[in-house]
Amino acid sequence: MDTKPGVVMIGLGYIGLPTAALIAQNKTYVHGVDINPKVVETVNNGKIHIIEPELDQAVENAVKGGYLKASVTPVEADTYLIVVPTPFKGKNEPDISFVESATKGIIPLLKEGDLYIIESTSPIGTTEKMLNLIYGERPELKDKLYVAYCPERVLPGNVMYELVHNDRVIGGVDQKSTDKAADFYRQFIKGDLHKTNARTAEMCKLVENSSRDVQIAFANELSLICDKADINVWELIQLANKHPRVNILQPGCGVGGHCIAVDPYFIVADYPMESQIIGKAREINNYKSFWCAEKVKNAKLEFELKNGKKPRIALMGLAFKPNIDDLRESPAKYIAQKVLQNANNEEYYIVEPNIESHNIFKLTDYAEAAEKADIVVFLVAHDEFKGLNIPENKVVLDFCGVLN
Ligand SMILES: NC(=O)c1ccc[n+]([C@@H]2O[C@H](COP(=O)([O-])OP(=O)(O)OC[C@H]3O[C@@H](n4cnc5c(N)ncnc54)[C@H](O)[C@@H]3O)[C@@H](O)[C@H]2O)c1
What we know:
- The chain is an alpha/beta fold.
- The chain has 14 helices and 14 strands.
- About 40% of the residues lie in helices and about 15% in strands.
- Nicotinamide-adenine-dinucleotide binds near residues 12 and 98.
- One of its GO terms (molecular function) is oxidoreductase activity, acting on the CH-CH group of donors, NAD or NADP as acceptor.
- Pfam families: UDPG_MGDP_dh, UDPG_MGDP_dh_C, UDPG_MGDP_dh_N.
- Keywords: NAD, Oxidoreductase.
């Protein structure tokens, strides 16, 4: 690329790469940076390293058109976007070291008037911390940069559409930063842009996912109560939701994925005394997975006592939610692991129709597993499972309501 890039995108993963491709589609030169040389090589070949509909074409066009180039090192630009991971360290403590190191990498390149935006899901105060880090090393730039936070809220599988059409919350460290960041996003986003400050924008992302987590925890708690009270929780929720102002979510075998099961801890870690419900919801949703694994164990023992032989057990689904191939933080995977840890010569069929193979689990076709098993455990409500006709002589544990 001979032309000077307008944007440096740091982190070319599930969020950074689609965003880079979108900006490039808009005929802005993007210099993508990733510490993983394989990612850089793949992108420079016009290919993608993640599964996301329509992304392959967008990246191919952007690279062919000369609007997107990847490298392991950043270059000078006018706008810098930080879209690197923010995982845990220790016991559910957010780890912002990736954001820090990405920021340190561009500090020498910054100049007056540049725009610096963090999109990574971050604990409250991260943007201010990075601001202090930058001004600590480059005091001459104080008040001469635009610094903002803008969280991402796309749904994997529909990223290319949602990137453009979702509303965005944009919070600068001051009003001029907020305005500048909003002007930047307005070039390629059709959704509404909601202006606020950096701390509120950071909290907003965490609250969106915590809200889902708390509501799912309520449904999961109901499922535990109903199991003891001999009430069908699916019917109960359907009936309760007939109330015009009640909308209870569906229970499941826990909560997974890299957002809802993770982000609430970013609040709890910093505000443990104040975040009682948020913390408890995490506990309930984690407990639900443990409870499901115990239920399988008990069903196994009961079968053996009753039939005098070891059961064949089908574990249906490993993904963290229906109809996807993503196993990150998946409660179904956790349950399968826990059940297999307690295996005692039973035969197991592990099923995940959305992936071809797994490095730990030997996978079985879903129809074959359901047919051969004595105990069929539904962990994820994949569409494939909905049409299954399970004979009455089999033990069925439906933790996700796929048969309801
Ligand atoms: N994936 C989602 O659906 C989603 C949705 C909303 C928010 N987020 C948030 O967005 C952020 C990024 O998530 P993701 O799913 O894109 O992560 P990802 O793991 O898919 O990609 C991150 C990329 O950053 C690279 N990287 C790490 N440190 C780097 C550094 N110092 N310099 C350059 N590259 C570096 C990694 O090699 C990786 O390719 C996270 O904070 C996540 O919580 C993700």
